[in-house]
Design a protein that fits this description.
Largest sheet: 4 strands, antiparallel
Bound molecules: zinc ion
Distance between the termini: 56 Å
Helix content: 10-25%
Number of domains: 1
Number of strands: 9
Strand content: 35-45%
Shape: elongated
Radius of gyration: 16 Å
Structural class: alpha+beta
Order of helices and strands: HHEEEEEHEEEE
Length: 137
């Protein structure tokens, strides 16, 4: 039987007001961020072999980076939260693990077979608009 696609967090939250999905909404969500370049490294290999690294900038960043686990329901890595936290502290570098918020479940999420457990490494740089002074510690 083919694996039916589970909804990911980006689908579940697609219609909420605070979620951003495009460049225009990125700039509304993060008015102080001039640009960012975030590398998300997934576990396992990319479909072409080698490490599975995806690059997100304000052109393609969205609230959630989808989890790759095909059985995972409501999965994803909350890039939006990470960026909001970084912006609040004017952090110019991020380097941390993120864990999937989803669980392995039936296609519509009614049955919960346990947490997904997938994780990614998130590394990147963020630049802020020039009129914002960096905070001194
Ligand atoms: Zn997951």
């Amino acid at each position: 039987m083919p694996i039916q696609r589970r909804q990911k967090a980006s689908d579940v939250f697609a219609n909420t007001k605070w979620a951003f999905r495009t460049k225009g909404t990125f700039e509304q969500a993060f008015p102080n961020i001039a640009d960012c370049r975030i590398e998300v490294t997934f576990e396992g290999q990319s479909p072409l072999g080698g490490p599975d690294v995806r690059i997100y900038t304000k052109e393609n960043a969205s609230e959630y980076v989808d989890c790759k686990n095909p059985l995972c329901y409501n999965g994803g890595f909350n890039l939006g939260d990470l960026l909001r936290a970084a912006e609040a502290e004017r952090k110019t570098e991020v380097d941390q693990w993120m864990f999937c918020q989803g669980y392995e479940g039936s296609p519509k999420g009614r049955r919960n077979y346990g947490p997904c457990g997938a994780n990614v490494i998130v590394k990147g740089t963020i630049t802020y608009r020039a009129n914002i002074e960096p905070q001194t510690p």
